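During the reporting period, we have paired protein sequences with backbone structure tokens. One record among many follows, to show the layout:
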Amino acid sequence: MTAVPITKNIECIEAPSHAHYALVRSSAALGHWHWIGFFTYPVNGGDTDSHIHDFQGVSRVADYQGISHFHRFTGETGQAIPLSGGGHYHMFDAATDNEPFQFKGGAYKTVLSIPRHIHAFTGATGSGLGYDIAF
């Protein structure tokens, strides 16, 4: 087995692990839009280093011509942006995948009666969450 070097966020290993939350409205497509809410994956990072976070999730359900559906999405934030009072946030710019889904019997399936389409979303996360507490 060949070892794969880990380079993403390597300079941040000594900084505290944390995540961020974001909630934004997507762009409109086919006459509708979705709420996009997510928590980033936690990483070690501080307010002034160059760390980033990955995120993924599903949009909130919306209707197209009376047919409910949602979309999957994945993305990566920009680098940490310091806040004047301490802490930091991240900007993001991403889009959903183009496949509309519905929940069916504990799973989800593609909705073939809705044309494939995407929704762009952009915004800022909140400040960091879940930092370890020093005792």
